[in-house]
Amino acid sequence: MDPLLAALRELHIRGTKGEELAFEELKQQTVRELKENERRVLEHLVRHHPPTWKHSFMVMHDAVWLAERLGLSADDVQAIRLAALCHDVGKLDIHPLLLDLPRSDHIAICKKKHGRVLPGKLTKQFTLYDMILYLAAQAPNQQAARKLIRNFEQWLRERKLDDFLHRSAYEYLVHHQEASARILREYGIDGRIIRYAATHHPEYLDAAKRKAAPRYAQLITIADKFNAMIQSEGVRPYANRLLRVEALTIILHELKQDFHAGVFHSFARRALAELAARHLPSGIVEELVPRVERSIGLLRRALKTQSFSPDAQAVREAQRLAAAIVAVLTLCDELHVTLEHHLLRTLDEYEEELLRLSGTVFHGIGTSVA
Ligand SMILES: [Fe+2]
Ligand SMILES: [Fe+2]
Known about the structure:
The chain is mainly alpha-helical. The protein contains 18 helices and no strands. The chain is globular, with a radius of gyration of 23 Å. One fe (ii) ion binds at residues 55, 59, 87-88, 224, 228.
């Protein structure tokens, strides 16, 4: 079987029968239409790290949809398609040990190095050498540990990346953006695709380059951020809708910050509205309502029996739900996404009761502990 298709086998979307079938057809068609050099670079990526290829496919799925909804020409849509598929080929420079390192290990490495986790990004707090020493310490014996370190160093040396060994994991990860541009150039990919890939993380660029970044690349940025957030561990296209709300809210917040930094385009806001329209109404309220009702039931019971102690967990869940409801309402409002009126009203009511109950119960926990 085609390696690109084989790696996408476990990837499905949930929707109507027609949408699910169209997604399967999209896989076939996308791979069929690749030119020889495009296929070669993507096969290289899939051999290196299959989850990155799956992620790229999901980014393409959203970015192309956005491009079509925003009325881009067929030529521009095609450029977005290929750039989204190729945006992360720079991950070829990033060792899979780091790409697959779970967050729990990031935390453990920071603690080992600093005695605690410092504020800010975890990957800024340790170097690649710290990481490999940490992994080597878990090897079954000294010999295996030494081999792991030797292989890792050699891997970096062969790619002329050994400079990164004593630099932060963050700097090394950021490097994948310019590596994408370099690798695409080596494979003779079209210049426009390279420019899109080279700016898909505008936050890594200096102010001048950020302002000069091609506008349409923002579709890839938004689809990339969204998909990365809903796939926190591995590729999970079925990520629950609460996570989707949280991801959309974070992106909206970042777009507003960009606005103050002078690089906000109304284009990006429209794109986010389309993304919200795609991912929000399909059952978000239906999913929230029973969870909210369960939460309200728990909190009411806790109040009635005065047994505040057991359920700090329930209060936290209620507060998370209340925040999600606020987020849905804000997103709908700011992005002009229309939810049915009666659903909005229901959420409004729930929000108030949840906040009131969780506040009262939380207060109860506080006083009973004191
Ligand atoms: Fe990236
Ligand atoms: Fe990405």
